[in-house]
């Protein structure tokens, strides 16, 4: 079948018809992240359940947008958090935080590269497995975290869906400054592409210290547009030394032998 991993180590995973697609992915060999990924070399799957995002941009709870000295960081104030399920994931994953990576230009600000294509920035939605008590507890397990990545492409025309978030950027220019924002700040991600867009998934690591290999990565192929001026406000955020944060991107890491990245073509559920 085309939706089976072609380079599994047979000593690690034995063929078993009762094993789900998500379970197969959970057994992949992990690697350090981020990666440069060639889509043409990835096994293609289309049988995974669609990804389901619940309680993100339509959450009644406010969030906090913080300049932590290294990035713009968003989290919700309440313990009632958004939930991610489906796709390569087994069970539910609880939203913990969102943050950004960027650089000084429009081509080297993303961490992951798809077919060699670079973009201005990359946004990560970090979740932890609900079977663990907290993010801190989950990091110690191979199935602990799930990170959804969006590649951000700089364009001349501002994207109005980013307006609420950009307003927050203007108010957190200084390190350790924060501002309360509504869940509408996440409305830019509200798109049919969440359930219909293609993505790549693999077992990888955090891209910041301690680089623990505990992450199921989900990187959407289609970039999200953000206006050049809107992105400029992100680049103006200052670090602890009051100097703008020019770059917070980890270089791509090498693929270890036997490592697999799956290219997933989502098929919208017929309800």
Describe the structure.
The chain is α+β, with helices and mostly antiparallel strands and 271 residues long. The chain has one domain (24-30, 46-243): Alpha carbonic anhydrase (Carbonic Anhydrase II). 11% of the residues lie in helices and 28% in strands. It is built from 5 helices and 15 strands. Strands 2, 3, 4, 5, 6, 7, 9, 10, 11, 12, 13, 14 and 15 form a 13-stranded mixed sheet that branches. Strands 1-8 form a two-stranded parallel ribbon. A hairpin with a 7-residue loop joins strand 6 (83-85) and strand 7. It is globular.
Keywords:
Alpha-carbonic anhydrase domain-containing protein, two-stranded parallel sheet, 271 residues, carbonate dehydratase activity, alpha+beta, globular, 5 helices
From the N-terminal CA to the C-terminal CA, the straight-line distance is 26 Å
CA gyration radius, whole angstroms: 18 Å
Task: Give me the CATH superfamily.
Answer: Alpha carbonic anhydrase
Low-confidence stretches: 1-17
Order of helices and strands: HEEEEEEEEEHEHEHEEEHE
Number of strands: 15
Helix content: 10-25%
Class by alpha and beta content: alpha+beta
- In CATH's first tier, which class applies? Alpha Beta
Query: What do the pLDDT scores average to?
Result: 92
Would you tell me which CATH topology applies?
Answer: Carbonic Anhydrase II
CATH architecture: Roll
At a glance:
The protein has 271 residues and is an alpha+beta fold. It contains five helices and 15 strands.
Write the layout of secondary structure elements.
Layout (H helix, E strand, L loop, with lengths): L20 H6 L9 E2 L6 E2 L6 E3 L8 E5 L4 E5 L6 E3 L7 E10 L10 E2 L6 E9 L5 H4 L6 E11 L7 H8 L7 E4 L11 H4 L2 E6 L10 E6 L3 E4 H8 L26 E3 L7
Parallel strand pairs: 1-8, 2-15, 10-13, 10-14
Antiparallel strand pairs: 3-6, 4-5, 4-11, 5-7, 6-7, 7-9, 9-10, 12-13, 12-15
Helix pairs in contact: 3-5
Family: Belongs to the alpha-carbonic anhydrase family.
GO molecular function: carbonate dehydratase activity; zinc ion binding
InterPro entries: CA_dom, CA_dom_sf, Carbonic_anhydrase_a-class
